[in-house]
Amino acid sequence: MSRVPIVAITGYMHEVNAFADPVTHGHGLQVAETPGGLAATWEAGPAMRRLRELRDVQFAECPLWEFGASGPLLDAHFQKIVHQVTDALREVGEVDAVLVMGHGAGRTTEDLDPDTTFLRGVREAVGDDVPVVMVLDFHANLSPEMCDLVDVIVGYRTNPHVDITERAVEAAEHVHRLLDGHRTVVTMCRPPLMLPQLAQNTLPGEPLGDVRELAEARIAAPVWNVSVFGGFSLSDVPDGGLSVCVTADRDAPEVAAAVAEEVATAAWDARDRYRTRATPMADAVAEAARAATGVRSPVILADTADNPGGGAPGNTTFLLEALLDAGVDGVVMGLQCDRGVVDAAWDAGEGARIVAHFNEGSDRPLARPFRVEATVLSLVDRPLVPTKGVYDGSTRHASRCCALDLGGVRIGVSSHKVQCADDDTLLHVGLDPASAKVVVVKSRGHFRAGFAHLFEADQIIEVGTPGVASAEIHQLEFEHLRRPMFPIDDVAEWTPVVTFHRGAMR
Ligand SMILES: [Zn+2]
C-alpha cells in the first residue's frame, strides 16, 4: 500500500464475577478519553510505541473500555459501548488493521459472550478482510466464536500477570506482519478443565508453569503465538475454563493444530497436581499466631475470596474478626474497602480515637457489620503508583484512605476497592509490611509478584474465607458453564479435539 496505513485501536476489558452485583457503564473507564489518550495508557501505549518503531503508521484512537473485575455489566450499557465503537470505526473510514485490547471474561446481564458480540461489531464495521489482532488476559474464557473473528490472539502468558507490556509489544509485531500481507490460521483446543483461581499460577514448579514453558518452547516459525488461558472460573459462562489457542502461518494449520493438542493435553495431564483447596480459616489464623509469637517465620495471608481483582467488594471482615478474636499481634492488613470508615477517620483526624463501623447498615451476609475501637494512624489522599508486580508503574485510584490501629491489627482502609497486589499499596497508607509478623492482603494471587521480595513460597497462606471470589468452586452453583468439568465433576477421560477457526479452509 502506498499511503500510510491506519491502525484502529479499541477494546473492551471486563472480568466478570457472576456472583457479584451487576454494574453500569459508569463503573468503567473509557481510557481513550484519559489525559494523553491511548498512547499514555498501559493498555495500548506499549503496542503503539512498538508499532511506530517498526513502521510509518497512523493510529485511529477509538473507545477502549476498561472495567477491571466486577459483576455483570447491564446489557443496555454494553450495547451502547458496542455502538459507540462501531460508529467510531466507521467514521475512521478505511482501516488497514485493528488492534483490540480485550480481557475475554466478559458477561452482561443478558449476553454470556459479549467479547464475541464486541468483535462482531468490529467486524461489521471494518469488513471481513481487515486483519484484527486481539490481546487477552490470561483469565479469558475463550470461545470458538472469538477465534473465528480474530487473525491473531495474544494472551498474557503469566499469572501473576507480569508480561502485560510484553504481550502488547508482541501484538504490535503481529499487526506489522499482517500489514505486510502475511496471513494466519487460528486453532483451538480445550480440555474439560475449570480450575479455581488459586490453581492457576504460572510460576516455575506450578503445573501451569510447566504448561507455560511448553507453550513458549513451541513458539517458532510457522507458529506465531501459543496462548494458554486459565479461564475465569467465577464467570459461569458456557465457554468458561482452560483453553489453548495457537496462531500460525495460514498454510500451516496442521502445525497449529498439533501444538494446540500437545499443550492442551499437557494441561489436562497435570490435573491431579492443581491445588484446588485453600487453607481453612482456623488453620490460617493458628499459623498467623505462631508467626506473631516468633515460633515460625512471618506469613502473608491471602483473603482469596474477597479479592477485588476477582470482582469481590473487598469489604468482608471474617479474617479481620478471626485475627482479633485470636489476639494475634503484629498484623498489617489491607486494603479494606469502606467509605464510611474512611470518612469517620477523616472527620476525627490523625491520632484520634474512633469507633470504626465496618459495613455499617449492611444487611448482606458477606458484608456483615462489625464495630471496633480504633486509633487513626494516617489519612491519605493521593494517587497510588506501585513500583513492582502486576501494577508496576500504573496509577491506581485508591481515593481517600486511612490507616487504623485496632490493637494487634493495623489496617489500611480505602474508599474505593483496590487489590493489594504489592507492598506499595500498604506503604501508601503508612503501613510497613516488612516489619510485620503477619500480613493480610485482599488479593488472590497477584500479590505474589508484588511481595516476592518479602515472602518465600512457604510463607504464603491462601485462606479459604467466605466471599464471592471463593476458591471453593465445588460449593458454587453454576448455571451456564458447560459440563462436565474437572475438578467439579468426575471426568475420567478426555479425547482432544482441535477446532479450526479464522483463516482455515472449511
Ligand atoms: Zn487476569
Structural write-up:
With 506 residues, the protein is of the alpha/beta class. The protein folds into two domains: 6-274 and 496-500, no CATH class; 279-471, no CATH class. 26% of the residues lie in helices and 23% in strands. The protein is built from twelve helices and 19 strands. The chain has helices at 45-54, 75-92, 114-126, 144-149, 164-179, 207-217, 253-269, 281-292, 318-325, 339-348, 423-428, 447-450; strands spanning 6-16, 29-30, 58-70, 97-102, 132-136, 152-155, 184-189, 223-229, 243-249, 279-280, 299-303, 331-337, 353-358, 370-380, 401-405, 409-414, 438-441, 460-464, 498-500. Strands 10-18-11-17-12-16-15-14-13 form a nine-stranded mixed beta sheet. A hairpin with a 3-residue loop joins strand 15 and strand 16. The longest helix is centred in the N-terminal third of the chain and has 18 residues, at 75-92. Bound molecules: zinc ion. Zinc ion is lined by residues 137-139, 161.
